[in-house]
UniProtKB/TrEMBL annotation:
It holds the Pfam family Epimerase. Residues 3-211 form the NAD-dependent epimerase/dehydratase domain. GO terms for cellular component: cytoplasm. This is 3-beta hydroxysteroid dehydrogenase. GO terms for molecular function: aldehyde dehydrogenase (NAD+) activity. It comes from the Bacteria.
Amino acid sequence: MRVLVTGATGWIGSATVDELLDAGHDVIGLARSDASAAALDEKGVKVLRGDLDDLDSLRSGAAETDGVVHLANKHDWADPAETKRSERAAIGALADALLGTDRPLVVAAPLSGIVEGRPVRETDASPAVGPDSARGGSENLALEYAGRGVRTVIARFAPSVHGVGDWGFVSFLAAAARKHGVSAYVGDGTARWSAVARADAARLIRLGLEQAPARSRLHVVDEEAISTRTIAEALGRALDLPVTSVAPGDADEHFGFVGGFFRTTMTASNELTRAMLPWTPTGAGLVEDIDAGAYGRA
């Protein structure tokens, strides 16, 4: 297949590009900078210059392909309205280019905000609908195209996609620990996160692109529930720092933007995902990665 990947040089996207290339696919990578373009060119990836606001570039790139993996997002925590707008516009442009083709469109989505009090299941619909909802209602917008000849596949990611070089949530927790001299959790530390190793996540994205039927929701999750206190204790061991609790009201000041996530339970089952696709995670667990020094050592 000839596959367009947005976010192709990101933490998850770069691993996905490698996975697709190793499986024999041709890849086109969206690149907004010279450095990103050079990194893709070095891998033998065709470069599509542009960004999420360049809708004409997205449409033309998608039209040339046999499928699209959409992983890019502005993640502008200071301007969430702009993040919602750009995400919704990008998905519309990519999906419009695939109308009536039955080609796959794999769209990244979060687990947060779907249900409370239990792990999210693949059968749980996102309540975010419309441009003013979380992430601009991108998951439901993408699924609308499944009835219009697009094989839409939603990939819901664990809050920790971990490994050496991670610049996601756990890396921000490690940075906060170094800054304050303590590895902290919020409240009693009983909030829980799901997690998955980066290479396992990339492999599931490829399988979803190749095999998942339209309207599938895949849970990119290996470990279902790790307490935030357990994560903080592992970072404390790795960085040789004391471990302490931070009051919920102080979490944003201590951790920055990630504080709101770290006090929130974000867990999911992957039972239906594993039943649908031949995916068995083989990577290290999150605590194992932390203990091995993936997020630094003292």
